[in-house]
Every structure is written in C-alpha cells, then in structure tokens.
From TrEMBL:
Domain Transketolase-like pyrimidine-binding: 33-208
Keyword ATP-binding among record annotations: no
Record keywords: Carbohydrate metabolism, Glucose metabolism, Metal-binding, Mitochondrion, Oxidoreductase, Potassium, Pyruvate, Thiamine pyrophosphate, Transit peptide
Cofactor: thiamine diphosphate
Protein name per Swiss-Prot or TrEMBL: Pyruvate dehydrogenase E1 component subunit beta
Function: The pyruvate dehydrogenase complex catalyzes the overall conversion of pyruvate to acetyl-CoA and CO2. The pyruvate dehydrogenase complex catalyzes the overall conversion of pyruvate to acetyl-CoA and CO(2), and thereby links the glycolytic pathway to the tricarboxylic cycle.
UniProt cross-references to InterPro entries, sorted A to Z: PDHB_mito-type, THDP-binding, Transketo_C/PFOR_II, Transketolase-like_Pyr-bd, Transketolase_C
Subunit details: Heterotetramer of two PDHA1 and two PDHB subunits. The heterotetramer interacts with DLAT, and is part of the multimeric pyruvate dehydrogenase complex that contains multiple copies of pyruvate dehydrogenase (E1), dihydrolipoamide acetyltransferase (DLAT, E2) and lipoamide dehydrogenase (DLD, E3). These subunits are bound to an inner core composed of about 48 DLAT and 12 PDHX molecules. Interacts with DLAT.
Signal peptide span: none
GO cellular component terms listed in the entry, alphabetical order: mitochondrion; pyruvate dehydrogenase complex
Species of the source: Electrophorus voltai
Reaction(s) the record says it catalyses: N(6)-[(R)-lipoyl]-L-lysyl-[protein] + pyruvate + H(+) = N(6)-[(R)-S(8)-acetyldihydrolipoyl]-L-lysyl-[protein] + CO2
Length: 359
C-alpha cells in the first residue's frame, strides 16, 4: 500500500509539474524593472540595432551617468558611441543637432532639463524648425532626454517642469513617461523617429520598479507616439496626468473607490501631439474633468487640455467646470515642508474630485 501511495503521489507531482510548465508557456511572463533600467534597455537595444545611434552628455560614459541611466553602455560600445562632454549644454547640443543633420541619430542627455535652457536655441531654432524650413528635405532625428520637473530638496533651479515650454513649439514631439513600460517603449519610438523628440523623464521615478510584460521585454516593443493610455477605467470623473502625477492619480483613485467614486485615470504619455480623442471619449462617459500636473498653472499642459475640451464636442458633456491641479505659482522653495506644499499631493487630487462632484 505504501508503494502504491508513493506511486500516486509521484504521479500527482508529475502532473502538477506539467501543468505549471504549460501555464508558464501560455501566460505572459512579467518582470520587475525600474524606470532607470527600462531607459537603459531602450538605449542599449537601439544602439545595438542601429550603428547611427550614439549617446552624448555630461558624465554619461565613464561615470555611467549622473543617475546611472547609461550604466554599462560605455564599456559595451566605447568612446565613439557613448561620449562624455564638457559642461556646455549649448555646445554639445549643437554638436548633436549637427550630427543629426549629417545622418546620425544622437541621444542628447541633459543632466536636468533646467540646464537645457542653455541649449534652447539649438533645440528650437536649429532642431525643431529645420525639417519644416527645408520642405521635408532635411530631417533632424535627435532625442533630447533627461530628468524634468521637481525632484527633492534641490530648490528652484533644478525643479521646473518644461512640458508646456517645449510642447508649445511646432516641429518638436514631446514625451513624458510614467512607468517602466512607458519609458522603454516611448524612448525606442523617439530614437527611431525622424523628428526631434524631447523625452521628459522624472528623477524621482528612476528607482521605481514596475512590472514589465513579456511583450514589453521584446526588442521590437515600441509605444506609438501621440497615444494616451487609460491606466484605470472609471465612470464618475476623468483624471488626466503625465509623468509622476499619474501614480498620484492612481493612489487618489484607490482612496476614492472606497467611497464609491470611480475615477478614470488617463496617462497622457505624449504631450505633443496631445491625444485629445481619448480625453474627449472619457469625458463623454464621466462628465467631469480634472487635469493634474507638477508644473506651474499659467499656460500649462492642463490649461491646453481645458481649452481643447471647451472648444470641442466634449464640452457639452461636462456637468461641472473642468479643474486644474498644478504646482503653486512660485519658484520651488528649498525647505521640505514648503516644497511639499508647492507640488500637488494625493490629498489635493482627492479634494478636487470631491469638489467637482459636490461631495
């Protein structure tokens, strides 16, 4: 009898192993990947795929990047593909734009987009306008990327969000990823695009890990530029955000769900071109709109969204005025308690939802 029980037990174990194998064959594999590593994977795969791609910027090579986003790339590709530059944004941005005009596909890293102000003439006058001014004869396939918006304890000169600034300019595409999937798929699309693309990352998101699906782990994975993603469906209010604020909106939505309020959270992913269709379709379902961003209110991304909704077919579906949740209209303070009160918090989003729903 003992031998018989062992036989059946071993048979069950064998069946269990087979079932587990079959399950893993058919179910999508997921992997925890930080935003930093997702960006690194995207650049690595595109450097390997296309010999015209190269990376340049301050400390991107031997130091592995100020935020370790380019970790290991210099050792793998060498000095000709991963290039350390002097502290001169106007200089190395100009070199990158010239290289793009000559047929290469540079990735130009700014240590923070606040420092891109030194190079904005190159980004706008040299890169953004050339394709149009040449009647489509001279593409400028370049990516400008780096951390954007508020970090922590770095005060005013390192904390500005430039999403509205750069998305104001025709000729540029402007991307603002939130998750690891966003970071990898959008950056790969940006590198392959024949237009100049600004990729606005967030320093506080670099170390945050997300599940990366089997599809997103593929070297062929890209996310279309100009298409938003509904991160959480809902039918009471539409929350529209980009970058780090997407996570804040999801956290606020989780709290509000316990009170019976279902928020639809839209991750813009792309600031220019803006996916107005997805926002309008959501408003037609929820009848309420709140935009959330870390930047300043005046002439911001939220202001543009509100204007488009007012001018379009979704306006007639609104049951309450659209509300903007933004950073405070001041230079970023250094003190933490003042800093926390200068950028949107989860409680601010919850308050705005309840206000627009008259709760």
């Amino acid at each position: 009898m003992a031998s018989l029980r062992c036989f059946f037990r071993s048979g069950r174990n064998a069946i269990s192993v087979v079932l587990r194998r079959e399950f893993h064959k058919t179910s999508p594999a997921t992997l925890q990947v930080t935003v930093r590593d997702a960006l690194n994977q995207a650049m690595d795969e595109e450097l390997e795929r296309d010999e015209r791609v190269f990376l340049l910027g301050e400390e991107v090579a031997q130091y592995d990047g100020a935020y370790k986003v380019s970790r290991g790339l210099w050792k793998k590709y060498g000095d000709k593909r991963i290039i350390d530059t002097p502290i001169s944004e106007m200089g190395f941005a100009g070199i990158a734009v010239g290289a793009a005009m000559a047929g290469l596909r540079p990735i130009c890293e700014f240590m923070t987009f606040n420092f891109s102000m030194q190079a904005i003439d190159q980004v706008i006058n040299s890169a953004a306008k050339t394709y149009y001014m040449s009647a489509g004869l001279q593409p400028v396939p370049i990516v400008f990327r780096g951390p954007n918006g508020a970090s922590a304890g770095v005060a005013a000169q390192h904390s500005q969000c430039f999403a509205a600034w750069y998305s104001h300019c025709p000729g540029l595409k402007v991307l603002s990823p939130w998750s690891a999937e966003d970071a990898k798929g959008l950056l790969k699309s940006a590198i392959r695009d024949d237009n100049p693309v600004v990729v606005l990352e967030n320093e506080l998101m670099y170390g945050v890990a997300f599940e990366l699906s089997d599809e997103a782990q593929s070297k062929d994975f890209v996310i279309p530029i100009g298409k938003a993603k509904i991160e959480r469906p809902g039918n009471h209010v539409t929350l529209v955000a980009h970058s780090r604020m997407v996570g804040f909106c999801l956290d606020a939505a989780a709290v509000l769900a316990k009170e019976g309020v279902e928020c639809e959270v839209i991750n813009l992913r792309t600031i220019r071109p803006l996916d107005t269709d997805t926002i309008e379709a959501s408003i037609m379902k929820t009848n309420h709109l709140i935009s959330v961003e870390g930047g300043w209110p005046q002439f911001g991304v939220g202001a543009e969204i509100c204007a488009r909704i007012m001018e379009g077919p979704a306006f007639n579906y609104l049951d309450a005025p659209a509300i903007r949740v933004t950073g405070v209209d001041i230079p970023m303070p250094y003190a933490k308690i003042l800093e926390d009160n200068s950028v949107p918090q989860i409680k601010d989003i919850i308050f705005s939802v309840k206000k627009t729903l008259n709760m």
